[in-house]
Automatic annotation (TrEMBL):
Classification via CDD domains: SPRYD7
Protein name: SPRY domain-containing protein 7
Listed Pfam families: SPRY (PF00622)
Record-annotated B30.2/SPRY domain positions: 10-186
Length: 200
């Protein structure tokens, strides 16, 4: 009975304020899992999501688990293996099996073409290669791109609707998405994607 009381007290305290004395395994897993990731339920039928929602390969598109609701969002994509790819934002109406994505998608592809709703609007001069990191910022006015920390020309404006970070891959491309712990720092005033309930 005397051994039971300290355990009972600790269990009640941890229930109220979290495991401050000892961290249970389930709590460590929950705390370490990224709050934002690629959504396995919002992918094309031939898309493969690995590394707890941070790596994409196969063929097709995937949306992120969280829409972009904050004022200034930043995320990063690392090119692990070249192929055909597009990264940017899309609405939930985007055709996730279409190769490459068409309407309801805005982003940049492996050729450096900036695509808005299925149309190429401009092209950047710098080549994008295996091992490069592409940063993306969105402030509800403009989607902008950064190559290894340097801004890439003009962004895309006029994006409408509830949008999500989106990635398309094909032809053996493998991309890693970073929603936290960036290797390239976010531009001033931009931060990692927040969940809607975090902002409220």
């Amino acid at each position: 009975m005397t051994n039971y009381l300290p355990w009972c007290f600790r269990a009640c305290l941890e229930c109220v304020q979290g495991p401050s004395f000892t961290e249970a395994a389930y709590y460590r897993r929950m705390k370490n899992e990224p709050a934002v990731a690629l959504d396995v339920n919002k992918t094309g039928s031939d898309v493969i999501i690995l590394k707890e929602g941070e790596r994409i390969c196969g063929t097709g598109s995937a949306l992120c688990t969280a829409p972009l609701v904050q004022n200034k969002s930043y995320w990063q994509v690392d090119i692990q293996q070249t192929g055909t790819w597009c990264i940017g934002v899309a609405t939930s109406e985007c055709a996730l099996n279409q190769v490459p994505p068409g309407t309801a998608f805005w982003g940049i592809n492996e050729k450096g073409e900036v695509v808005s709703n299925g149309q190429v609007v401009t092209k950047i001069d710098k080549p994008i290669e295996e091992g490069d990191s592409i940063g993306l910022t969105y402030d509800h006015i403009e989607l902008r791109f950064y190559l290894n920390g340097s801004a890439l020309g003009d962004g895309i404006s006029g994006i409408r609707g509830k949008i999500f970070p989106a990635i398309f891959v094909d032809d053996s491309a493998i991309l890693d998405v970073k929603f936290t712990e960036f290797t390239q720092p976010a531009p001033n005033d931009f931060s990692e994607i927040l969940l809607e309930q975090t902002i409220l």
